[in-house]
Design goal:
The structure holds 2 protein chains of 2 kinds. Chain A is of the alpha/beta class. Chain A has one domain (2-112): Rossmann fold. Helix content of chain A is 35%, strand content 20%. Chain A has helices spanning 16-24, 36-39, 73-76, 85-94, 120-142; strands at residues 2-6, 27-29, 45-52, 61-65, 101-108. Chain A has a 5-stranded mixed sheet, with helices on one face. In chain A, strand 1, helix 1 (16-24) and strand 2 (27-29) form a beta-alpha-beta unit. In chain A, 53% of the residues are buried. Chain B is of the alpha+beta class. Chain B has 2 domains: 4-38 and 396-428, no CATH class; 41-378, Cytochrome-c3 Hydrogenase, chain B (Orthogonal Bundle), CATH 1.10.645. The chains are: A alpha/beta, B alpha+beta. Chains A and B meet through helix 2 and helix 4 of A and helix 1, helix 4, helix 5 and helix 6 of B.
C-alpha cells in the first residue's frame, strides 16, 4: 500500500499530510491533486493523508473509503489546490483509474493561513494519524 | 425592487479562496469588486535573512501549479545580481523544464477548468462521465508535461534540481530521448486540442487591453526578454518598478498592479500571442491560423484557444530542445554572492512573474519582492467583469454568476498563495 501525504508546508495545518507521509516513509505530494492520478497509476492500494476542514474540532481524524463512496467535496475544499483531492478521486473513478483500494485519512485542521508550523491540536493528531496509517498499511499487507 | 443578495458558496475551479461582489442598480452596474488574490507577503518576509540559495525552492512552494516559474524568475534575478550568465545547454534545459510546466498547466486549465464552462458542465468530472476520451487526452498531456518535469526537474511533482547558477545534475542525452515519443504524441493531442477549443461557442466580447509580455528576438516569450506592451512599452526588467506599481485596494488585502499613468493591463497567453505571434513555430502558427486566430485577437474568452496553441508551441519547442541537446561539461557555473539588487522576470503559464532580491555581502536576502501574474491581471479582470455584467444586466443571477466565473477563468488565476473559496454576491437594487 503506497502512502501519499498531500498538502502545502507553508500553509500551517495544511502541512499535516506531508508531515505524516514523511514520518511513515510515504510520499509527500505538494503538487495539484489531479497529478495523483498519474502517480498512483499501477498501484492496487493507496492511502491518502490530507488536512481537511469540516467544522469538527481541530485534530479530529476522519477515515474514508474512497472506493465505497464519493469523498465529500466540502471536506477537502480547504485544499490550496483548485481541483481538490475529492475531485481527483471522482475524476479517476469516472475514467476507471481509481486503484482497487483507496483509503483517506483526513486530519481536521484549525489554521490554513500562510505560515509554518502545525497548531497544537493538529500536532497531536499527527501522532495518532501516523499510528492509523501504520495500522492500515499493516492490515493491507497481511490481507490475503 | 428590494435589494437581494445571491451567494454562491465558492467559485470552483479557481485555485484558492476569494470573493466577488456585483451590485446592480436597476439597469446599471453600480459596483464590481473582485478579491481573488492575496499577495505572497508571507514568502517575502520568510525569505528575509535566509541564504540566497534558498530562494528558488522556497518560492516554488507559492504555487502548486507553476513552481518552475517561481524558480526561474528567482534564479534569473539572483544570477543577474551575482554577475553570472547561465547560457548554452544549461539555459536550454531551463527552457525545456519550463515547457514541461506549460504543458501540464495549460492542459489542466484548458480541459479540466475552462472547457466545462463552454460545454455547460459543472466540472471536468461530469465531462469525464459523458466523454471520457476528452479528459483522457488532458491527462495524457499533463502526464507528458510531468515526465519532462521529472527528467529535467529531478523529481515528479515538485522539481528540486534547479539552483542558482544552473542545476544540481544535468540529464543524460538518453534520458531526454525517452521523452521524444511521448512529446510527439502530446503535440498531436495539442493540435487536436486547438481544433477542439476553436469549436467552442464564444461570448461576443472584445476589449482593447494594454497587453504586456516578454520579448526576445527569435524566441516565443518564455524564460527571458525585455518587457514590451501593445502601447509601446519596451523596458529592461530593472526598470519594472518605475513603470508598474501595486495599488492598495480598500475593500481587501489585495494589491492591484497598474502601469503608471495608464492603468490596467493584461499579461498571459493573449499578450504573448499578440506580441510574439511571429516567433511561434511553423506548426503552432499554422494551427493558430487554422483556428481562425491572429495576433489581433482580443476576445479574452478565446484565451482557451490561445492556450491550446501554446500547448503545441511548448511540445514543439521541447522536441527541438531535446534534438539539439548536448550534455554540458558541468551542471552549474560558479556563483559568488555579492551585495546588491537583482531583478528577474519570466512567463509563468498565466503571465509575467516578477522577482526582485536584495542581498547583503554574505549572500543573505535582505529584501524580496514578488509580483505574480494574477496580481497584475486582477484589475483587468475586474474591468472585464464590469463590462460583461453590464451587457448581461437582465440575465438571471445564477446564469450571470456562471458567466462571471467563466470570465475570471479566462485568466487562469493562480492563487494558491491566496485563500480557498470564492464567494460570489450579486446584489440587485
Amino acid at each position: 500500500m503506497r502512502v501519499f501525504g498531500i498538502g502545502n508546508r507553508y500553509r500551517h495545518d495544511d502541512a499535516a499530510g506531508l508531515v505524516v507521509a514523511e514520518r511513515v516513509g510515504g510520499t509527500p505530494f505538494e503538487g495539484e491533486p489531479v497529478g495523483l492520478i498519474e502517480v498512483w497509476s499501477g498501484e492496487d492500494a493507496v492511502l491518502l493523508v490530507d488536512a481537511v476542514s469540516s467544522g469538527a474540532p481541530a485534530g479530529t481524524l476522519h477515515r474514508l473509503d474512497a472506493v465505497a463512496e464519493p469523498l465529500p467535496p466540502a471536506l477537502f475544499a480547504a485544499s490550496t489546490h483548485h481541483l481538490g483531492v475529492a475531485d481527483a478521486v471522482e475524476l479517476a473513478r469516472a475514467l476507471g483509474r481509481l486503484p482497487a483500494k483507496v483509503v483517506v485519512i483526513g486530519i481536521e485542521g484549525a489554521c490554513f493561513d500562510a505560515g509554518e508550523g502545525l497548531s497544537i491540536e493538529v500536532e497531536t493528531a499527527v501522532e495518532r494519524a501516523v499510528e492509523a496509517v501504520r495500522e492500515e498499511v499493516g492490515a493491507c499487507t497481511s490481507a490475503p | 425592487m428590494a435589494a437581494r443578495t445571491i451567494v454562491t458558496e465558492y467559485l470552483a475551479r479557481v485555485e484558492g479562496e476569494g470573493g466577488m461582489r456585483v451590485e446592480i442598480d436597476g439597469d446599471r452596474v453600480a459596483d464590481v469588486k473582485l478579491n481573488i488574490y492575496e499577495p505572497p507577503r508571507f514568502f517575502e518576509a520568510f525569505l528575509r535573512g535566509r541564504p540566497y540559495t534558498d530562494a528558488p525552492d522556497i518560492t516554488a512552494r507559492i504555487c502548486g501549479i507553476c513552481p518552475v516559474a517561481y524558480q526561474m524568475s528567482a534564479v534569473q534575478a539572483l544570477e543577474r545580481l551575482c554577475g553570472v550568465t547561465v547560457d548554452g545547454q544549461l539555459r536550454a534545459l531551463r527552457r525545456l523544464l519550463y515547457c514541461g510546466e506549460w504543458i501540464e498547466s495549460h492542459a489542466l486549465h484548458v480541459y479540466m477548468l475552462h472547457a466545462p464552462d463552454f460545454l455547460g458542465y459543472e466540472s471536468a468530472i461530469e465531462i469525464a462521465r459523458d466523454h471520457p476520451e476528452i479528459v483522457a487526452k488532458a491527462l495524457e498531456l499533463k502526464q507528458t508535461g510531468n515526465k519532462v518535469m521529472t527528467v529535467v526537474g529531478g523529481r515528479e511533482i515538485h522539481p528540486i534540481n534547479v539552483r542558482v547558477g544552473g542545476w544540481y545534475r544535468t540529464p543524460r542525452r538518453a534520458e531526454l530521448l525517452e521523452l521524444v515519443e511521448p512529446l510527439e504524441r502530446a503535440r498531436d493531442i495539442a493540435l487536436e486540442t486547438v481544433a477542439f477549443a476553436a469549436g467552442l461557442p464564444f461570448p461576443d466580447y472584445v476589449r482593447e487591453y494594454e497587453l504586456v509580455c516578454l520579448a526576445e528576438p527569435g524566441e516565443y516569450p518564455i524564460d527571458r526578454g525585455r518587457i514590451v506592451s501593445t502601447a509601446g512599452l519596451d523596458i529592461d526588467v530593472s526598470e519594472y518598478e518605475e513603470h508598474f506599481v501595486e495599488e492598495h485596494v480598500e475593500w481587501s488585502n489585495a494589491l492591484h498592479s497598474v502601469i503608471v499613468g495608464r492603468g490596467s493591463y493584461l499579461c498571459g497567453p493573449l499578450a504573448r500571442f499578440a506580441l510574439g505571434f511571429e516567433e511561434l513555430t511553423p506548426v503552432a502558427k499554422s494551427a493558430a491560423r487554422e483556428a481562425g486566430l491572429g495576433p489581433g485577437e482580443r476576445n479574452p474568452f478565446k484565451s482557451i484557444v490561445v492556450r491550446s496553441v501554446e500547448l503545441v508551441q511548448a511540445c514543439d519547442e521541447a522536441l527541438a530542445l531535446i534534438a539539439a541537446y548536448e550534455e554540458p561539461d558541468r551542471p552549474a557555473v560558479e556563483v559568488e554572492p555579492r551585495a546588491g539588487v537583482g531583478w528577474g522576470i519570466t512567463e509563468a503559464p498565466r503571465g509575467i512573474l516578477y522577482h526582485r532580491y536584495e542581498l547583503d555581502d554574505g549572500g543573505a536576502i535582505r529584501t524580496a519582492k514578488i509580483v505574480p501574474p494574477t496580481a497584475q491581471n486582477q484589475r483587468a479582470i475586474e474591468e472585464d467583469l464590469r463590462a460583461v455584467v453590464e451587457s448581461h444586466v437582465h440575465t438571471p443571477d445564477d446564469e450571470l454568476a456562471l458567466l462571471c466565473e467563466q470570465t475570471i477563468r479566462n485568466y487562469d488565476p493562480c492563487i494558491s498563495c491566496a485563500t480557498h473559496f470564492l464567494k460570489l454576491d450579486v446584489e440587485r437594487r
